[in-house]
Amino acid sequence: MALEWAISWIATVAAVYAILVALYGATCFVVARLNRQIAAAKIQARETPQHLIRRDQRQSLLSLFAIAAMFGTGHWLYAEFGWGLRPFGGVAGSILAFLGSLILFDTWFYWFHRLIHTPALYPWVHRWHHLTVTPVAWSNNSDRLVDNLFLQSYWLVAHFLIPAAPAVLLAHKLYDQVTGVIGHSGWEHGGSWCRPPSPLVSVTHHDQHHRYFRCNYATHFTLWDRLMGTLHPEHDAEARHNIATTVAVRRAERLPAE
Predict the structure, then answer these.
(1) What is the tens place of the pLDDT at every residue in 156-195?
(2) What is the span of the domain harbouring residue 106?
(3) Could you please report the per-residue DSSP string of 50-119?
(4) What is the count of structural domains for the chain?
(5) Which of 3, 51, 172, 187 is deepest in the core (most CB within 10 A)?
(6) Contact in structure between 175 and 150 (CB atoms under 8 Å)
(7) 10 contacts: CB under 8 Å, gap ≥ 6
(8) pTM score, two decimals?
């Protein structure tokens, strides 16, 4: 029985890792191509050194494995032993569980993210991620194991926190993966759905976090940052400006050459 459990756990973690790596690579390549189409709308003028980009690519593969281990273990405990809350049935229940998980994870991420920015923890937990001041799509998952344990361990215990089916939590994780890559891309890909006063974070939101360090700690929504006074004072104005710039560049690129 123990051997069967071990094989089942390894297969679960391996499957989750394969999904995350495939999505990570595909999203990064697509975003990089989209960035080239709107090169003039780049948020930061400075360029990211190539050695940091290569570092982020290598480290991301390790970090994604740590996330897969936590997510896969949580799913395995739920599937094998029924550990966790039973989900609500039907489409409506799945939608509510998805939205609830978004809100819950955003809360988890905000407060742990603030914690690892404190002087006692920042140097040995989170500094690695911030060595890339001008983030690129490949930077999203470039962090150390201890950083992962603070921010991503939600996926290990999510079944104990919210009555969501495994497919709902997987959908949330995939959403988190894609939006995280976009959020580190360096170009404002958010449309009207991210333009303030929309509660959804824009690329500008996290780009400011890498530039100024002590602001914009949330990952899905701006609500906690607004409530706690940690939103950068120029966030709304810059987000509107960057979104408008991207829209203008896209329109210009579609115009026929004279």
Answers:
(1) 999 999 999 999 999 999 999 999 999 999 999 977 889 9
(2) 2-254
(3) HHHHHHHHHHHHHHHHHHHHHHHHHHHHHHHH--SPPPPPHHHHHHHHHHHHHHHHHHHHHHHHHHTTST
(4) 1
(5) 187
(6) no
(7) none
(8) 0.94
